[in-house]
């Protein structure tokens, strides 16, 4: 079972390209880009997102990669 923080709240799958949105939460890049193409709200809080800028979450990406390596073949 992957750590909760590794799972995209939109896709409910482990992220491979995590980005942080203006709401402070991380999402899979392709999923949040699709969301923001038609909405200007946070998928988690429903609150208005003032900006649609997505910041790569390098730390989370590294942690997910390490988790994958530690659990490979299990």
Automatic annotation (TrEMBL):
GO molecular-function term, one example from the UniProt record: ubiquitin-protein transferase activity
PROSITE patterns: U_BOX
Record Pfam families: U-box
U-box domain sequence ranges: 1-74
CDD domains: RING-Ubox_WDSUB1-like
GO biological process terms, semicolon-separated: protein ubiquitination
Name of the protein: U-box domain-containing protein
Organism: Emiliania huxleyi (Coccolithophore)
């Amino acid at each position: 079972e992957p750590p909760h923080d590794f799972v995209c709240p939109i896709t409910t799958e482990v992220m491979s390209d995590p980005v942080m949105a203006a709401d402070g939460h991380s999402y899979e890049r392709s999923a949040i880009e699709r969301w923001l193409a038609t909405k200007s709200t946070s998928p988690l809080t429903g609150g208005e997102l003032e900006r649609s800028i997505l910041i790569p979450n390098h730390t989370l990406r590294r942690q997910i990669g390490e988790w994958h390596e530690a659990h490979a073949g299990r």
